[in-house]
Amino acid sequence: MGEVVRTDTPRENVAASQAEIPPSADRSQDLLAETGSPQGAGNPSWNRSAAVLGRGVGTAVSEARRLPRQISSLRSRLQVVGKQAPAAFSEKPTEGQLIERDLAAQADKAAVYSAELGRRVSDRFEDIQREGRLHLQALRQLARRAAANARQWQPEHPLQAILICAGVAFALGVMLRVGRSER
Questions:
Q1: Domain count, the chain
Q2: What burial class does residue 16 get, using C-beta atoms within 10 Å of its C-beta: 0-12 exposed, 13-18 middle, 19+ buried?
Q3: Does pLDDT of 127 surpass 80?
Q4: 3-class SS of residue 35
Q5: Does residue 94 belong to any structural domain of this protein?
Q6: Is the residue at 31 inside a domain?
Q7: Residue, of 118 and 89, whose pLDDT is higher
């Protein structure tokens, strides 16, 4: 399976995709306030997902930043052909002036759009990071409770504890063997 590269990400309408993203739940704010900031995750699948997300955000921001330069480049390549009439004789702007005004208006729109796009991407990235931290903290608390319950249960039922460990080891061995045989 190949790694995702920057050119593999589909280009979408950011305004439409932003409308589809639901806002973060109020409960996530409460959990963050109760639990504090967790440490970094060691889950490889989360790390890969974060890397892909980071590449996508980086691509979007770099494309948004390049847009004004591309418009400036386009403006510098346009040339007005022919003589312009003296200003005293013509009240209407020339075709070159109209094109220049249109390009300036488009450059302004592109600058506003790229700033808005960067802000939206940054806000959404922060939301995703916050939600990830909250989920990670909740998983850590669940794991701590399960470990405490296991420590309490183990001395009371030693035979069952040994059988459970053996069953888990057997299941992991089967999954590893199946995983290696599929390669």
A1: 1
A2: exposed
A3: yes
A4: helix
A5: yes
A6: no
A7: 118
Residues of the domain holding 77: 6-10+41-81+90-155
Phi and psi (nearest 5°) for 80? -90, 130
Over residues 28-53, the mean pLDDT reads 62
Element spanning 174, H or E? helix 158-181
* Predicted TM-score (pTM) of this structure: 0.34
Q: Whole-angstrom distance between the N-terminal and C-terminal Cα of the chain?
A: 11
Assess contact for 94 and 78: CB atoms under 8 A: no
DSSP string, 40-108: ----HHHHHHHHHHHHHHHHHHHHHHHHHHHHHHHHHH----SPPPPTTT--SPPHHHHHHHHHHHHHH
- Tokens 């080891």 found at: 169
DSSP output for 117-149: HHHHHHHHHHHHHHHHHHHHHHHHHHHHHHHHH
User: Does the structure show a pLDDT above 60 at 97?
Assistant: yes
